[in-house]
Amino acid sequence: MQQNKIEQSSVVGAAELVPIVKGSHVYLVDGSGYIFRAFHALPPLTRPSDGLPVGAVHGFCAMLWKLLRESKASEAPTHIAVIFDAGRETFRNDIYPKYKAHRPPPPEELLPQFPLIRDAVKAFNVACIELDRYEADDLIATYAREAVNAGGDVTIVSSDKDLMQLVRPGVTMFDGMKAKRIGRDEVIEKFGVPPEKVIDVQALSGDSVDNVPGVPGIGIKTAAELISTYGDLDTLLARAGEIKQPKRREKLIEFAEQARISRQLVLLKEDVPLEIAIDALGVRDPEVDALLGFLRAMEFSTLTKRIAEGLGAEAPPPLAISVGASLKSKAQSTSDKIEALAEEEAFEGATPAAAVAAGTAIARAKAIDRSKYETITTRTRLEEWVRKAGQTGYVAFDTETTDLDATRADLVGISLAVAPGEACYVPLGHTGPSNDLFGGADNRPPQLPITEALDVLRPLLEDPSVLKIGQNIKYDALVMKRYGIDVTPFDDTMLISYALDGGRNAHGMDVLAERHLGHACMTFAQAMGQAPGAKKSEKTFAAMPLDKATEYAAEDADVTLRLWKVLKPRLAAEHVTTVYEMLERPLVPVIVAMEHAGIKVDRDILARLSSAFAQRAVRLEEEINGLVGHKFNLGSPKQLGELLFDRLKLPGGKKTKSGQWETRANLLDELAANEELDGDARRLINTMLEWRQISKLRSTYTDALPEFIDPSTGRIHTSYALASTTTGRLASSDPNLQNIPIRTKEGREIRTAFIADKGMKLVSADYSQIELRVLAHVADIPQLKKAFADGLDIHAMTASEMFGVPVKDMPGEVRRRAKAINFGIIYGISPFGLANQLSISREEASDYIKTYFQRFPGIRDYMEATKKHAHAHGHVETIFGRKIHYPEINTKNPSMRGFLERAAINAPIQGSAADIIRRAMIRMPGAIEKAKLDSARMLLQVHDELVFEVAEADAQKLIDVARRVMETAGEPAVKLSVPIHVDAKAAYNWDEAH
Length: 994
Description:
DNA polymerase I, Taq DNA Polymerase, Chain T, domain 4, alpha/beta, 40 helices
């Protein structure tokens, strides 16, 4: 950063000085505001040659050129500068450390564009200015003061409300996007007070975006009314006791000092020590070769031509870029399409909402006609489609296979779409039967050999300048990885939908097509020619006739592309681009690598455990039969209900409409918690529970896991669902490795079967009480924060606070109760639930919860505030900005409303913890590579735990890397106000490593 400043200073310093005199006109451009408006104005744009994100650079250049062109035609400036923020930390953080602390980091695809935008300003031969420890607004304020003092006029090119305090005679603002001048009248319309009183209004109302605290409960309208009545902030605070409204009076008295601090934060400095004198900002014509050369290097072909025409110069030829062998001589990516839109007057300065509308219109403009899809059976036609995809810059891509398990699936075909309605299917592994259109001598439909087809497709699928668009692209990427192809870069419509609508609806393609396109996709049964309601066919996709296979598969690619055009612009419009780019998309290749790696499992250990569990279950059955007095089938709901409620007359029985006793899943647990059971009944219920647990462990794990061991690798390759929970947690299936009990002896025994390969060790790295730490942070609980900072036993500390018991030599039972309450509160536990968990009365459980909230009132405040927000907005947010929707939370059904309120309270905590481990997973491969740990790879994610495999000699080094990455996973986006701690250990099996 400093080196850039020195270079820029020398360039500016070498320019001829132009003193400010009466009649001078200084344009001060808010560069940081320009960047974000440019970034969100257009759909995503990447440079064809290397896939570098350049959408913000393009938008910035177009906006700056438009400003220079139009200002020259009207009131030409004599001086101009583009001014940027130098960094997040400024002198205001010394005044108030939480200033801007809640701001999310810029989207990851924007980060590499910041230096390019500064280069763009220099290419236009305009002064580019920034200064450490100061915001751009402070530099603008200082330059404006100097210009006016010297007799000049100033136009601040920005719509930022924080700059409106600077409006005065000689200083106006200009919103380039709306072509609107902002003077004194417009400021009064915005704030209700003239510019000179804006600071006082902002000091009272605060600013949630910049985390300026203000006075709670006072908004801009009320603040303007108070300042208009009392004249200024100091007078208002001095006379606060005269205010009639009691709440307003109390708040102003209580938060007077906070208001004064807020005034310091919003007041712009007009005496910044400038490194570049205002006289050095004289307007200079661009150096044609430098400017056009920069635009050419960015590969903005259309913009380069337009600016060249404006400068009266000849546009340089576009760069010739070889992409994917010699598939094309000149890369033409999405940029040309987007640039063409950008040149249209109707699209210039388009809002995110307009981009959404445009995307939806494009997606729905052409009706889906399956008869128009093409079946590709020759190399020549496939090469033409690949060339077309390369020229377009993006392609929707889908695979058809033999298995739902991507790690075992063989390719049957691949479908592509380059535009709505333009899609094809490439059959690769169809076995017949043939249909009327196709048929070879061997009764197999004609199709390209798979190796030949993949030779043609590989350059496209790995081409960094062509975006691959998929629906649940993790599956397709895993399939292609088995064939040695890494699909990159990509977008995933399922994950885009998840980032936008998590909790609102499902994210499968059929559901999304119905919801966003009004289209019902062809089903597999329809493609196979089955009548509605007919028995499911045992035929695989490979046996589907090619005409129907083409309709079915190409439609998937067509629909995926259309969904992308509808959904992708919404990310910017709804302010969740960062969630998608920071938490969703970059996780896909990490999960692909994990699923591909799998984890080794010892069959012999599972077999021994299965045998031991079977013998134990038999003994428990005999014990149950003895207690019942006859042979009893515990697996029969009918027999269980009759025993419990007809014979034993136990409480809590309910009959179904058919007259049979209801035997819900948690019935035995509820009965076991009943204090009124006699000794024999309690022994029977507990024995039944033990039998059920052993039987479930046997059927779910020791008997089932061997079936999932891949014979070619000797490893289990679980599948992770990235968009199946509302909170951002990953889910594991086929098999589910996240539900193996860790707190029971039997569960730990099962984990001993998960082993390291020869010469390797497993490393388990587990977050310690991450959800409680997140709770302490988001609810701002001083006692919990201090306990975590001091490294105390959080459950013992809670018990001491609640029950007045010294931490030293605390009885285990007391700590256990506090632990149950700590975790129960996170999940909105009720007195009934806590009573069941601790085997105490509801009255005692209710007293515990009441005492808990008395000791930690901030938690109750957090819960009430979260419920209020959920009811008002229909969603809650994690600390990373993930929105978790509860569209039915205002239901009139009290039971459902209570359930959704508890879920909404828990979601920001559980969701934030899930986001933290996602960030850790995303950063882990890079950290491992940087540490030169070639043998290390990440194998599993189990809620708050990551499991790795590494060479024995490198185990400790990996532990150090894992801890460092996991404990700083939220930074710089979010730095928790409590320390994050990770427990990590290496061993030869999973149980020992935990």
